[in-house]
Amino acid sequence: MTPLRIDANRAEGTLRVEWADGHVTAYDAATLRWLCPCAYCRGEAGMPGWLDTNPTLTAEQTRLVDLSIVGNYALQPLWGDGHHTGYYTYMLLRDRCPCDECSRDRDRRHEAHASSPGSPATGAGDRHWHGGDR
Ligand SMILES: [Zn+2]
Known about the structure:
It is a single chain. The protein has 4 helices and 6 strands; from the N terminus they run E-E-E-H-H-E-E-E-H-H. By secondary structure, it is an alpha+beta fold. The chain has a 3-stranded antiparallel sheet. The protein has a 3-stranded antiparallel sheet with strand order 4-5-6. A hairpin with an 8-residue loop joins strand 5 and strand 6 (88-89). Bound molecules: zinc ion. Zinc ion binds next to helix 2.
């Protein structure tokens, strides 16, 4: 969970993180803004946060102005509207990685949790016992 390289491109509004295991995570600013983990956006003590009200984000609110590194565990973006209270831990950034591979992993975890009865086992050719001549 250690970034080797962190690239914030303010012009394009993207954040790219290269991890020690070779994985690359790329966020666009809007996606990143929606992940803001601060108490205001996420709520606290059981209260819903601002992002939970499904607000329409303005261009300013999703404009990545600056990015600070907090200790050795998190990034703190500064947004065009002045919001800067979100500490995005490396764990969060990696866990919510929007790449295809990680999205699939999340879906799989989701399915495992949902355990919907009757849905046929997907993919994975582990049931080809009645001959497969294609
Ligand atoms: Zn926030």
